[in-house]
């Protein structure tokens, strides 16, 4: 039973971590919409979540170190989704080399916000169900 609870919470934890990281990336794109030569970035959420769920760490992504001088992660955590970070191609080329389309970024930001809120509601529901399950039946 505990493994089922743990797996449900691990999924929610991983999804919330990835959604929060994606929100930061999208906010950075919006903030840099007027920066010359700024390249819009995004993560492949599906691939990142599959990797997070397949990792041996509970709810986290493995840290990809490419040099022996890299620091070890604190408490086994790593920078989420860093290896799934991709550059987005320009929909409409700009003269200054910026690839941010503010309309696409706002739509992605709103969509990600809705998914984040859904995962929060799912976590709240899981905790509510567990609370109800351990409460004594009133007569």
Model description:
With 139 residues, this protein is mainly alpha-helical. It has one domain (2-64, 74-128). The chain is 53% helix and 4% strand. The chain contains 3 helices and 2 strands. The chain has helices at 2-31, 45-54, 102-134, and strands at 41-43, 85-87. It has a two-stranded antiparallel sheet with strand order 1-2. The longest helix has 33 residues, at 102-134. The protein is elongated and about 75 Å long. The two termini are 26 Å apart. Residues 56-60 have low confidence and may be disordered.
Describe the structure in brief.
With 139 residues, the protein is mainly α.
Number of distinct beta strands: 2
> Span between N and C termini?
26 Å
Q: How many domains, in number, for the residues?
A: 1
* H/I helix tally: 3
Q: What order do the strands of the largest sheet run in, or round the barrel if closed?
A: 1-2
User: Beta-strand level of the residues, as a percent range?
Assistant: under 5%
Low-confidence stretches: 56-60
For the CA atoms, what is the radius of gyration? Answer: 19 Å
Helix proportion of residues, in percent? 40-55%
| N-to-C SSE string, H for helix and E for strand | HEHEH
Mean pLDDT: 81
**Major sheet details:** 2 strands, antiparallel
Structural class given helices, strands, pairing?
A: mainly alpha
Give the overall shape, derived from the CA principal axes.
elongated
């Amino acid at each position: 039973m505990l493994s089922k609870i743990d797996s449900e919470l691990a999924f929610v934890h991983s999804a919330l971590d990835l959604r929060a990281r994606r929100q930061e990336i999208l906010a950075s794109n919006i903030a840099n919409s007027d920066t010359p030569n700024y390249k819009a970035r995004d993560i492949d959420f599906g691939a990142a979540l599959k990797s997070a769920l397949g990792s041996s760490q509970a709810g986290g992504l493995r840290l990809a170190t490419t040099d022996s001088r890299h620091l070890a992660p604190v408490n086994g955590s790593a920078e989420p989704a860093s290896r799934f970070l991709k550059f987005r191609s320009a929909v409409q080329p700009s003269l200054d080399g910026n690839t941010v389309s503010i309309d696409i970024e706002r739509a992605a930001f709103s969509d990600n916000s809705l998914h984040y809120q859904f995962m929060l509601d799912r976590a709240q529901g899981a905790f509510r169900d567990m609370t109800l399950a351990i409460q004594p039946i009133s007569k």
